[in-house]
Structures are given as C-alpha cells and as structure tokens.
Write a structure and sequence with these properties.
alpha/beta, 2 domains, 6 helices, binds zinc ion, five-stranded mixed β-sheet, 13 strands, six-stranded mixed β-sheet
Length: about 270
Amino acid sequence: MTMSRRAFVLDLGKGTLAVAVLGIGVMACSEDDPVSPTSTPSTSPESTAPPTTTPATTSPPTTNPVTTSPLAVEAVQWERVNLGFVSAYVLARNGEAAIVDTGVSGSEGDIASSLAAVGLGWGDVGHVIVTHLHADHQGSLPAVMNAAGGATAYAGAADIPEISSPRPITPVGDGDMVFDLEIIDTPGHTPGHISVLDPAGGLLVAGDALNGADGGVIGANPEYTADIVMADQSVQKLATFTFETVVFGHGEPVVDLASQQVAELAASI
Ligand SMILES: [Zn+2]
C-alpha cells in the first residue's frame, strides 16, 4: 500500500506537484508551483498535463494545502516503554501505532500504558515489529498479538523460527516498508536482527544492533552477540543512514545528531 502510493507519487515526476495526504490520495496540481521553481521548468512536459486527468476536481483546492514534501508522511511520535532492563517502543502516526519489540513475558501492561500515553489502545495497533529473537524483545509477543487482534507481526526471516506468535510472522528485510518505516537488515547480534528507521522523523530503533552508554552509542554487546564481526559490519551499515535520534533495547536514547555518533563509532571499529 505504502510502496504503491510512493511509486505513484514519484511516477508523476517533478513537474507535477502531487501530495498524498494520509493515504487518501488527494492530489493538487499547479503549473506555477513556487516550491520548486528550479527543478520545474515551465517547459516541462509534465507541467502541461491537463488538470482533468487528476482527481483534484473532486475537492476544492483551498481545502488541500500544498506542502513542500511530495511524500507528506508525518514523523512518528515515539514513546519508550521502559521496562528497566530492556525497552520496547510505541511509534504512533495518524491515530495508528506500530510496536517495536515487546519486552520480556508479562510486559503487555506497560506497553498498554505507553499506548495510552499517546492516546491509543490495542485496537489502533496495526503492526508489531520484533527486532530479534532474544526473549527480552519477543517475550510478550503472544500477549501483544492477542491483545492487538488486528495487528500483523514482522521479524527478520532468520529469527522467525525462534519467535513465538499466535499468528504467522511476516518476514521483512532490506527494502521493506512497514507503516512508512524502513526495515534495515542488521545481522550479527542474531542472524535475523533488523533495525527500524522512520525517515520522516529521523528516528532509528536499533534493537540490540547498537546500545546506549554514557549518553552515547556503542556497538552490540559481545557477550550476547552471535557474530561480532557481522555485528560490526551492521554498525558500519547503520552509519550510512541519517537520523537525529536513536533508541535502543538497552541504554538511554540519543536525541541529538545521533547518526554522527554512529558514524564516529563505525570509524573506530
Ligand atoms: Zn538481544
């Protein structure tokens, strides 16, 4: 759904200012778009497209304000479910939520509290993403999936056989988008470890591919990591992305210039 909408918007080309709002496909076109004059020459063939080929006539233009982003995806609002030893996360956007990791068994009450903190409940949870197979990240998945009856579960393919869920888990990896979140394969800590990036909000949920320590970022914990060489390669990979904030399974979130810190870490290993 998301990918097709994105592809649709991109297919329109830069000459047409297209805005998809909350997935309802509202579009607005303008031949004298002031937002991108340098990239939209007036001679562009796209700019001559007749307006009758778009659904813009179904809504008065005044009710569809043009934004500067062709994707029009809002940043997620994130809420940490601080379980002490480990953290899970609630990512909310447009009245819907994704949960990333579920804590140890018995954490569903704390997760419900974090959902309530952003004004949502189990019925609003469409997605539950498990970063990896360790019990402190997947322990409450059965309870969470039972409470969130409409949710789909996702994890890295290599870890799925070790994760318990009352419904099938959808394998995801590089290139997949879930709830406008980009899935990044970050193997090493476990073979199927994944991280989750919100490009719109500049937020990385790193699971145990990274850890927070002393206000900064360190790599995977060697004591609990299956393949530390591969885990270090995943740190190098994460350093190629840009994000302001990074949150972890273990340790305090870093909320400023986070990708710079990851890049410095990557350069040091
Ligand atoms: Zn772990």
